[in-house]
Amino acid sequence: MTPLPATLRKAMARRREIADLNDGTTDAYRLCDGAGDGLPGIFIDTLAGHWLVQTKGVPMPAELAQAPQLGWKSLWWKRLDQEEKSSLQHIAGERLEHVIIRENGLRFLLDFQAGYSQGIFLDQRLQRRRIQANAPGQRVLNLFAYTCAFSVAAAAGGALTESIDLSRPYLDWGKRNFELNGLDPPPHFFCRGDSFDWLRRLARKGLQYDLVILDPPSFSRNQEGKLWRVEKDYASLVTAALAVTKPGGQLLCCTNHHGVSPRQFQDWLQAGAATAGRSIRKYEWGGAPEDFTGEPYLKVAWLNV
Ligand SMILES: C[S@@+](CC[C@H](N)C(=O)[O-])C[C@H]1O[C@@H](n2cnc3c(N)ncnc32)[C@H](O)[C@@H]1O
Asked: I need a surface site. Which of 115, 130, 192, 260 has the fewest CB within 10 A?
């Protein structure tokens, strides 16, 4: 069997051929995507040189800690096969709490102590780039905003953004991401609240957006404790979002739910649009960037309405 460092070197060489990882604007991406890179169960992200190793069904590969010549500044481990989302375990190298990464020339703050995720979902790099490119003059509504990475991309491109999330600490983190990029948080709007509730309120006020972003978790509880599940409720989310999407505007719909096929996803989008009485002029499919070589779990659709 090929030793792990040799397989990893091959995976790293593949990344050197990906254009947008080599123009000096991005230093956070997936270095190894499990079976897609010949290492089933091992997922490695480089975060400005700090490596986050996630494992599923296999132990932390001990060879990594013994191979600093691979170029890591520090090594952190997260198990994906535990029920409870665990925090990161420090394995080797610098033990820092925060790091600032760059993606498409934008800066984002990451936190190694944060339990749920470190602050950015690297598989959405292409969507962030497209949002930034289309942004001039747009009004953008980002629901389930988390640390506002989509909003930062939109604002950096010249859009006015509104970010909604249930968590105040995540929105505060989002504001710090704005500041890191020289963007003043006001006039942008950060709202702690339930996305479903806010969609109703914004529609009642007659507000309309050029771009509405839907990237929800696979399931969520709203403030009243009511459970929302992607499989059951995505179509109604689309219906509600279309009520605040301008004619000629766009809806960006995403899900990373593994159990949903692209066909099923498209059916939900169509059903949601039909209930809203809106027609979809064009579908464009997006997805994860080339460094995500493994299972294509991320479904992304840009709808022109
Ligand atoms: C998978 S993350 C979303 C990722 C995000 N779109 C991004 O670009 O990084 C899930 C986020 O949804 C938020 N959330 C969950 N249920 C919500 C709800 N009902 N309304 C608003 N935010 C919600 C969580 O607080 C969390 O920040």
From this structure: 115
